[in-house]
Design brief:
heterodimer, A: about 300 residues, alpha/beta, 3 domains, four-stranded antiparallel beta sheet, about 40% helix, globular, B: alpha/beta, Rossmann fold, six-stranded mixed beta sheet
Chain lengths: ~300, ~280
């Protein structure tokens, strides 16, 4: 069984322990008259790679903020239900402790970088933790190396390209050695090749370092081939939570404002036509699609 | 008509962002400027409304050299929506933000009201009419900037990365808006590296790299040229790659809708498979 098949047959994370548990979570921002999250229930297993999709404003960002305690510790509002992250109830745990377990990377790296050098940016949160100098240096080296940006160490973050900045932002989160990496549309300002490159790095972190990844992303074509789970949200609720191929097979995601990968869309139309070609397993890549056709004509 | 004659632009820090751009855009054309970040797309757009003036060469908008026109004069003709939409807001409500330009042009208040209402509803911002523009989310700010342009409808509309941070339904809205403005005879110039969006819009594409135009032609011609795209750090649209890879069953490379592509694949297989059975 290939690695991909194993993941699909139940995932490597199948028997893994839960790292996040969300029970009956609802949340309303202070001053808003509508709930941003409505009765969300969810278990995330250690090592899973989860993609969050849905329209702008569907609650993806709010849900991510609940995983690192920004909600309810930083954003005020009305929260019911509970969120357990690595066994800790986020209501009773300060953000600086939670951020060592679940690190967050935002859409716009400019909001996350402020120091004069890449090294100083990555070091900053570690210095705040009061770690010894050797440990800090060791972690900086590790984080830059794993993202392949050692050469940027002494550069100013402001002279870097968007893709490089986003990698530095990830490095500064990684240096905290979190178990969970939360990413909120990290590729939205990047050009396609840089976006692909960034996603490849994120996949590496999951596969090699065993990090649990939860990422909200509009470009499903680039990311779904690597995802164990796709969670589709609509108006604060989770409307689908399953293997991406299963969801793409029986659901028209456009209803939820989500563009499925074009190959899967073609496959859906092929299936709807009925005929000599039928995809029981939805293709997520062009290669998978073409291989199926090759198999048919021998 | 917009004409660039051998335009060079060097930023004060010495970076040469445009390096000999010659270009002619006819009235009513829809154009996509494509290329990786830093290739000069935004700099080029800023030359059209006179925000930047060429270091060398010249830019003519309807025959007027932008060097001899003020930004205010050009702004009557050219509406530019920045990538960072926030930078263009200053009113205290979303409604006033959209109404501002119209009032400035001296439209009757009843016309202003109708246009503002229509544009806000079109961009799904009706509920926010009384909110502060600065409290909107990133995607909503972008839609507000588009609503302003839509209500105002200048002759030339330049959009800098309009799809960033927009979900699929909003992108379809944007597509409708562009088609509507095209119907009205507006000239539309979009900078974008959203290949899937551009593949659907099928405009004339101008491909930029390091401040130069390296290709100029129909969407079909450019988006099906994989090596050209990859030299600009762009990935081909998935439909282009899929149809190209399926050449061995007789499918032709295209940017067609997935529904059409599915049909073509089944027809192509239909032609091959019976033959195989009779062999």
């Amino acid at each position: 069984m290939s690695r991909v098949d194993r993941r699909e047959a139940g995932g490597e994370a199948e028997g893994a322990p839960a790292i996040i548990r969300v029970e009956g979570l609802s949340f309303k921002y202070y001053g808003s008259d509508q709930y941003a999250l409505r009765d969300v229930n969810l278990v995330v297993k250690k090592g899973e790679f989860i993609v969050l999709a849905g329209r702008s404003g569907c609650g993806k960002t709010t849900l991510l903020r609940c995983f690192n305690g920004l909600i309810p510790n930083f954003y005020e509002g009305e929260m019911s239900g509970r969120v357990l992250v690595d066994g800790m109830d986020t209501r009773n745990m300060p953000t600086h402790i939670l951020s060592q377990v679940a690190g967050m990377v935002f859409q716009n790296p400019d909001n996350q970088l402020f120091a004069l050098s890449v090294e100083a940016d990555v070091a900053f949160p570690l210095e705040n933790l009061g770690l010894p100098r050797e440990v800090i240096l060791e972690r900086i080296e590790w984080a830059l190396k794993i993202l392949g940006i050692e050469d940027l160490r002494y550069r100013s973050p402001f002279e870097l390209s968007g893709g490089q900045k986003q990698k530095v932002a990830i490095a500064s989160v990684l240096a905290m050695r979190p178990k969970i990496l939360l990413l909120d549309e990290p590729t939205s300002s990047l050009d396609p090749a840089s976006a692909k490159n960034l996603i490849d790095s994120i996949v590496e972190l999951n596969r090699r370092e065993g990090l649990t990844i939860i990422i909200s992303e509009h470009r499903l074509d680039l990311i779904l081939p690597y995802a164990d789970r796709l969670i589709v949200m609509d108006r604060g609720r989770i409307v689908r939570d399953d293997n991406p191929r299963a969801i793409l097979k029986d659901e028209d995601l456009l209803v939820y404002g989500v563009a499925p990968p074009r190959v899967s869309e073609v496959a859906r139309y092929v299936n709807a036509h009925g005929g000599c070609l039928r995809f029981d397993r939805m293709p997520l890549t062009i290669r998978e699609f073409v291989e199926k056709v090759r198999g048919l004509i021998g | 008509m917009i004409v660039f004659e051998n335009v060079e632009y060097v930023y004060p820090n010495g970076v040469k962002a445009l390096d000999g751009v010659t270009l002619r855009i006819e009235r009513g054309e829809v154009i996509a400027l494509m290329g990786e970040n830093g290739s000069g797309k935004t700099t080029l757009l800023k030359h059209i409304n006179g925000l930047l003036k060429p270091t060398r060469g010249r830019v003519l908008v309807d025959g007027v050299d932008t060097k001899s026109a003020t930004v205010a004069e050009l702004a009557k003709k050219v509406g530019l929506v920045f990538q960072n939409a926030e930078s263009m807001f200053f009113s205290s409500t979303v409604w006033d933000e959209v109404a501002f330009a119209l009032r400035n042009f001296g439209y009757d208040e009843s016309v202003v009201r109708r246009r503002v209402e229509w544009a806000l509803n079109f961009m799904e911002l009706g509920d926010y009419a009384e909110s502060s523009p600065f409290l909107l989310s990133g995607g909503e700010k972008k839609r507000l900037a588009l609503a302003i342009i839509l209500a105002w409808s200048p002759e030339v509309i330049a959009l800098d990365e309009p799809t960033t941070g927009q979900d699929q339904l909003q992108k379809e809205k944007l597509m409708q808006m562009i088609r509507l403005l095209k119907e009205q005879g507006r000239t539309i110039i979009i900078s974008s590296h959203d290949v899937e969006f551009i593949a659907q819009l099928k405009p004339r594409i101008i491909l930029m790299k390091r401040g130069r135009i390296i290709a100029d032609g129909d969407a079909e011609k450019i988006l099906l040229d994989e090596s050209l795209l990859s030299s600009c750090n762009l990935l081909p649209p998935q439909i282009a790659s899929l149809t190209k890879e399926l050449g061995f069953i007789g499918v032709k490379p295209s940017l067609k809708h997935p529904r059409e592509v599915a049909k073509e694949i089944l027809e192509a297989l239909g032609r091959i498979l019976p033959k195989k059975l009779t062999e």
